[in-house]
Amino acid sequence: MNFEIEVNNRTLPAHKGDTILATLNKNGIKVPTLCNLKGLSPTGACRICVVEVEGIQNLVTSCSYPVRDGMKIQTHSPRVVKARKTLVELLLSNHPDDCLYCERNGNCELQDLSVELNIRERRISGKKTRHRLDLSSPSVVRDPAKCILCGRCVRTCDEIQSVATLEFLNRGSNTIVGTTMNRDLNFSSCIACGQCVMVCPTGALHEHSNLDDIQDALNNKSHKVVLQLGPAVTVSLAEEFGLKSGKDINGLLVAALRKIGFDFVFDTSFSADLTIMESVAELLERFKAKENLPMISSCCPAWVKYAEQFYPDLLPLLSTCKSPQQMMGSIIKNYFAQNKGLKSSEIFSVSVMPCLAKKFEAQRPEMTSKGLSDVDLVLSTRELAKLIRLYGIDMQAIEPQLADNPFGTRSSAGKLFASSGGTAESIARTLYNSVTNKDMLSPKINEFRSGSELKKVDIKVGEETFKFIVANGLTELKELLQSVRSGEVDAHYIEVMACKGGCVNGGGQPFGANDKDVKQRAKTIFELDDVETIKCAHKNPMILNLYQDFLEKPNGEKSKKLLHVNYSQRDVLL
Length: 574
Ligand code: SF4
Ligand code: SF4
Ligand code: FES
Hints:
- Helices cover about 35% and strands about 15% of the residues.
- The strands form six sheets. The protein has a five-stranded mixed beta sheet with strand order 2-1-5-3-4, with helices on both faces. Strands 11-10-13-16 form a four-stranded parallel beta sheet, sandwiched between helices.
- By secondary structure, it is of the alpha/beta class.
- The two termini are about 45 Å apart.
- It folds into three domains: about 1-75, Ubiquitin-like (UB roll) (Roll); about 90-205, 2-Layer Sandwich (Alpha-Beta Plaits), CATH 3.30.70.20; about 210-565, 3-Layer(aba) Sandwich (Rossmann fold).
- Strand 18 (about 465-470), helix 15 (about 475-485) and strand 19 (about 495) form a beta-alpha-beta unit.
- One iron/sulfur cluster binds near residues 151, 177, 201 and 202.
């Protein structure tokens, strides 16, 4: 039902069931918010969004108050502005004064609000509580001193990620956000997805930065520093350098990284092609033996940790393929190094990923060979942007360059790994070829690319129909996994990505991107797939060469040793 309301003496349309805030936003009126976040249940915790409603004595929180017919609202009356200012001053009263050194300096919603409300002096002084910095996780740092208790992280971890690691602990002025029994993150059920970092308005949750480590590695001349760029990274940071949001800047990044001093630059989409080849061979083996089906993807380390903790009984169904990051790390140290006449230990292997769980994955004891980690250090997309600025590279004034050989060619299928459904779509293409010896007439499968949380796609392959399911984020996963557990699910392959939309929306991506920006990243990947000629992993000549020259055959003895891994139950305090 539609009706009219009056806002700041203007008549505006409104819709029954909307909140005041949603109505204001639809009409282009901006009211500041802190705890509110699209897609999460409103809590009215911070009160920054208050407005004055005629006939109601107290100011109301617009994010949690329903709009009513004929309401008369003032969004910026002196009383409202004063209240907001006092609320922010109270938040600042016990906030650490180290903004200049904070991870979020220049990118902090609390800082922005202070500027917006013209807060220029400390009028309220509160007792600064001392809190221990939680540095235990290789992915996420927790700094409770900077927490403003907005609860965005708690709701994201629970309502979106279905993990529920974070909760409010203690009461009153002692309240903090922490994990069960206030254990450090690394000992909790946290799957390191980083989605809480993406929503935290301050520096209370941020990534475990490896920027200092990478500079040390670059300055150490006793090894070659080799870098791989994740498929989603190249379409996710153009706007950081004043270029069009979502633009693919792969060539510019390769050039910038060489200028910074990386000895070799590779594209992880190449090893995504390798993952496709290995996954298809593994799936067909299981299909023929009629065992361990449906095969469930294992490219997303946050999902793998989730399975280890909450669904250990389903671990035999997980693909044994390492993720593209780890496969690339392994072939760099075990094939590329030898080709260059180097010892594996003379290579320092770095990856840039859109994901914080990749930092966790690289440190897993399983991800090693001969005592050496496949990947020595992982940077997030955000850290890459910082590194490029640190080295003073002008991205608008460099010429694009190609990635290094022997992994310099990728298929567009490998690039599709960046988006939800992309792994399944790429596997379907090569599976079709492996079974029929022909290529799909139309390899683009739109059903895999939809934004639905659960996508079911049947692909006719010769005489068989292969059934694929894609879990886009973890929200709808529980029900699906229950049906897998009970044997009711009708599928051969299930792709799971912990972040909605896939890696383009990962926890290591630049702050401030909206839904449109994230969709544009995926759109760019799909456009590349439309125009490029090598659309399938099995058509990548460098992949074929790698098998001929070194690996011999997919899922063969060498591959199993270097590119496959098994997972086991992980006990955590829930
Ligand atoms: S990283 Fe993910 S799982 Fe861990 S606390 Fe944050 S949202 Fe929850
Ligand atoms: S850690 Fe960040 S997101 Fe979570 S309650 Fe504190 S300020 Fe809000
Ligand atoms: S944004 Fe409305 S109460 Fe926090």
